[in-house]
Amino acid sequence: MAIRPCAPPAACVFLICALATAVYTAYPEPMNPCKSSLSRALLAVSRLDPYIVSCADDDASAVILTAGSNDKKIGGPLETSLHTCVNATLPENALPPFYCCPPKPTSEPINFTLPDPAEPLRVRRPVHAVGAEYMRKYERVIELMKALPESDPRSLYQMANVHCAYCTGSYRQTGNPELFMQIHFSWFFFPFHRAYLYFFERIAAKLLGEPGFALPFWSYDVPEGMRMPPEFDNSSSPLYDPIRNPNHAPPKVVDLEFAKPGIENNFTDEHQIQQNLWSKFQMIGNAALPSLFHGQPFRAGQADKPGAGTVELCPHNPVHNWVGNTTKTSFEDMGTYYSSGRDPLFYPHHNNLDRLWQAWRDLGHVDFTDPDWLDSSFLFYDEEARLVRITVRDVLDIDKLRYRYDGVGMPWADAQPPVTPGVNTKKGTLKSVRFPVSLDAAVTAEVMRPRVLRSRPEEEVLVVEGVESDGTDVVKFDVYVNAMDYEKVVPGGREMAGTYVSLKHPIMDGTGKGMRIETTMRVALNRLLEDLGADGDQSVTVTLVPRSGNVKIRSLKIVYIVE
Q1: Does residue 59 register a pLDDT over 50?
Q2: Residue 460 phi/psi, 5° resolution?
Q3: Of 283, 307, 284, 312, whose CA–CA distance to 297 is shortest?
Q4: How far apart are CA 248 and CA 331, in angstroms?
Q5: N or C: which end of the chain has fewer CB within 10 A?
Q6: Which is it for the CA torsion 256, 262, 263, 268, positive or negative?
């Protein structure tokens, strides 16, 4: 049955909110909206955030919204087709090549099948410990991929284009060709890149003639792996990319919250390593829910970039920016989506992120069970140059994919940052903030908690809504909780609840301007408020501190999520 929005919109939303409030007030805790058709209808008509309560067994995510005579289905798994892949609109000063779509197939894609369970496990080890002989194998892999014709889908040229096509608007949603299929800023970030590395690794093994070859990873989340790997800085090696930041050559320690030059930390190596560990505690240890870790749901018929997970924002984006050449307009190669796959360091970088996904699961967390996520699919060419369609559910178990990680631990899991006393004593002097705001300077607002007592297993979440910026800019801002005097907080201190860092996303809008990006950011509060001794407070103070770029924030709110 079609659900028709009422008019006028303002009156409609007012009535919906009033009715929703009445229903919630009458049935506060016992009411389960997952079993209520009324709540689903209210959300569908009002277009309010349907993920305040997430239902694991939700089979009603597809809703027909009717406006005039045009019916549009919102919901269902996403998929793409090579037949509708188009050239991305990149800026004039982008570095060639510009066409990102893969070679056209001679037949329709085959469905992915898991490798033989009897196949030996590939063991992925860290770059800093795997040894020179093994790194020479990776050199040989890149050399062989570069030597293949550009028309070969297994060539490095085409492997890099896979990332370009899925990240710049080349791929469109099947059934909704006007909508981008962008795998960043959403719940597709981890599964897409896992599938990407799976096929890259198997192609590498095929070219080498070594079935057991495993891709090494850059373990920048452990102290011994935080330096720029020297193996990638030899100009005579296939692993060298001349379009990198020369100021970050070995033995430089990576800054896992880096945005761009001019705001770099002048830390000692020891201090930088400590801050990196604190940062990973915040971004991984606090992301208890799949929507916090993976990112926000992105379904068929919806606009892209609904919201990134914590690890995509940091360390993923900062490492890309840190490696890319910041003298280039878009921080090529690594610092922008369309060219990052051209750098051989891209693959060990994302291999470490895939390891962090497994580490997050090893901590006891669980992934989404939503069929719209599980049944969404991507296209890759395999080691035999066959086009394969692989779904998210295909990549959830690395044992079934026949690989594992070895060689490092999780030192950040116990690296809880210190609490800074006396940084929120001016709460009574707060002035009201009128949103939306442009972050030209730090902004502090008091955010009321809808209720003080949470029911388990709810996660209390701060939502930074309507994060709007120019896609050609690098944006960074920090989110502090209960730290009006944020300058007194040690870098990476406990009050710094989250960091938003973007990559340059230089897609043009057809008028010569960069396309605007609008997304959300979410910050977990449960453990944070306990650590700050604020779990019984009626409100929290939130301070947004701009570090780079121009950004506008539409609003702040606190929600309670069950997934």
Answers
A1: no
A2: -85, 130
A3: 307
A4: 13
A5: N
A6: positive
In the block, tokens 């009603």 appear at 60
Closest by CA to 480, choosing from 435, 451, 443, is 443
34: buried, middle or exposed (CB in 10 Å: 19+, 13-18, 0-12)? middle
The Cα angle at residue 336 between residues 334 and 338, in degrees rounded to 5: 100
Tell me which residue of 485, 484, 481 sits closest to 495, measured CA to CA. 481
Longest CA–CA separation in the chain, Å? 71
> How would you classify the pairing of strands 387-391 and 110-111?
parallel
CA angle 270, 254, 260 (to 5 degrees): 120
CA–CA separation, 429 and 421 (whole Å): 18
DSSP secondary structure letters along 176-214 = EEEEE---SSSTTHHHHHHHHHHHHHHHHHHHHT-TT--
The CA–CA distances, whole Å, from 561 to 16, 37, 76 equal 21, 19, 21
Nearest to residue 180, comparing CAs of 169, 165, 192? 169
**Weakest mean pLDDT among 307-316, 447-456, 511-520:** 511-520
Find out whether 285 and 56 touch, Cβ atoms under 8 Å.
Answer: no
pLDDT the model gives residue 505: 80
What digits encode the pLDDT tens for the residues 108-160? 999 999 999 999 999 999 999 999 999 999 999 999 999 999 999 999 999 99
Return the closest-CA partner of residue 356 out of 528, 525, 137, 193: 193
Quote the tokens at residue 454.
């949470």
Ramachandran class of 86: left when φ > 0, alpha when ψ lies in -120 to 50, beta otherwise: beta
Taking alpha carbons only, the member of 309, 312, 280, 284 closest to residue 296 is 309
pLDDT at 39 over 50: no
- pLDDT level of residue 513 (50, 70, 90 thresholds): low
Mean per-residue pLDDT of the chain: 87
Beta strand 437-438 with 551-553: parallel, antiparallel or unpaired?
Answer: antiparallel
The mean pLDDT value for 160-172 works out to: 94
Q: What is the pLDDT of residue 508?
A: 62
Neighbours of 116 (CB within 10 A): 8
The pLDDT tens digits for 214-263 are 999 999 999 999 999 999 999 999 999 999 999 999 999 999 999 988 77
Q: In 281-379, which ranges are continuous DSSP H helix?
A: 290-293, 310-311, 317-323, 346-362, 371-374
Instruction: Output the pLDDT for position 518.
Output: 95
Please state the three-class secondary structure of 28-49 as a single string.
Answer: CCCCCHHHCHHHHHHHHHHCCC
**What predicted TM-score, i.e. pTM, was given to this entire model?**
0.88
